[in-house]
Every structure is written in C-alpha cells, then in structure tokens.
Amino acid sequence: MNELESVRQSALQNMEFVTMERETVVDIEATAVEILTADAPLKKYVVDVKNGIDPLEAATKNPRKDPKNKIINEKDERRDKAISRFGRRLYYFELSEDPDERAAFETLEPLWIQHRDILSMNKKNQTGSTDNFINDLKKEPFASAVTTLTMSPEQNAIEETNNDFRASESDKRSVKTTHENVKAKDLRKTLESANNNLCEYVYVMAKAYPDNAQWNKLLTVINVIRKRYSELLVHRQAHSKKKPDKTDDK
User: How far apart are CA 152 and CA 149, in angstroms?
Assistant: First the structure.
C-alpha cells in the first residue's frame, strides 16, 4: 500500500491551494467508486472540502463591489463640486468694478490656474493636491484676497469635503483590508483542515483495508495531486535559491 504523499499546504499560494483542492475533489468524484456514497464519513469529508473552495477563491480574488465604494464616489463628487464652485465664484469678480475686488481676483487667479488641474487627478492624488491648494489659500496675500471676495465659505467647503473624503477612504482601507485578510485566513485554515481530514481518512481506510481496491484507488488519486504540488514547491524553492549569473552587459 502507498503512503500518503506529503505536501506543505501552507507554502502554496492561495490560488494554487484552491486549485489543488478543486482538483482533489474533481478527481476523487471522477473515480465514481461506490464508497463515495456508501461511506458516510468519506461523503462528509468530500463535501466539506467542496464547500470550502468557492468561498476562499472569492475572498482571495480581486475584491468584489464594495458598498463603501458608492459612498466614497459620492464624497469625491461633492469635493469636485466644491472645488468647481470656488473657480466659478472667483471668475464672477473678473469684471468687477470694485478696485479691491478686481485686485483680489488678480491675486487669486494665478493660484487657481496653478491648482485647478486637481479636478482631473485620480482620487488618491487629488486629496494631497487639494491639501496643498488649501494651505496656499491660507497664506498671504491669498488669504486676504479670499476675505475681500467673501469666498471663505467656498474655501471651507473644499477643506471640509476633502477631509470628509479622506476619512471615508481611510476607514474603508482599514476595515476592508483587516476584514478581508482575517476572513481569507480563516477560510483557508478551515479548508486546510477539511483537506487533511479527507486525505488522512482515505489513507487510514486504505491501510485498514488493503484488499479493498476502491480505497486504494482514492489514495492513488490523492497522491498524484499531492505529489504534483509538492514538486511545484520543491522547484520554486530551488529556483529562489539559484543566484543569477553576474555577467556584464555588452
């Protein structure tokens, strides 16, 4: 009777591990041996592995749509509108007949031109660039110009919406990342345990009933898969230890 092939499941990458589990179930079921339905523990162990595959795959693939994304997009839109309102209000004073307002406009316009491209930036870059814009507006002579044009509400709206966006983005990253990492680890741990139960049960039964060809057939199927992934890990380890040749470029 064959021994159970050893494979370090914990060393496999998530998608390799998922694929190994799926291949194990598919190949076991493909044998169509009677004990798959007649032996209750075996049937349960196979189902446990099968039920653990899709949830782990979903948890380790690219994140699915997150309801928080809608909130973040809405807050980003509010920030864009606040920035746009500042620009539109500023140009209201371009044709002002008040000398002070006209002078304030001419002071602020170059600063606006310098920063208005933040509206076309991605969300991450826009947050930092908006901070820079706000900081500049608080410096002289720009701060006095904002006061002259009574544009403090527009300035405050930019700062508030930017901070609001930042808080939501930070909350999403921390909560989402922590939750997903914990969930994936728990799912993988559960699936590893289910796989161990299945493989060890088949091995024990094949050892207890060496004349039963069905158990031996299942053990052979399991070993073929485990050996393949064990060799994959050996190859990867050897490749990672191999030092690149030090040759000069010509």
Answer: 8
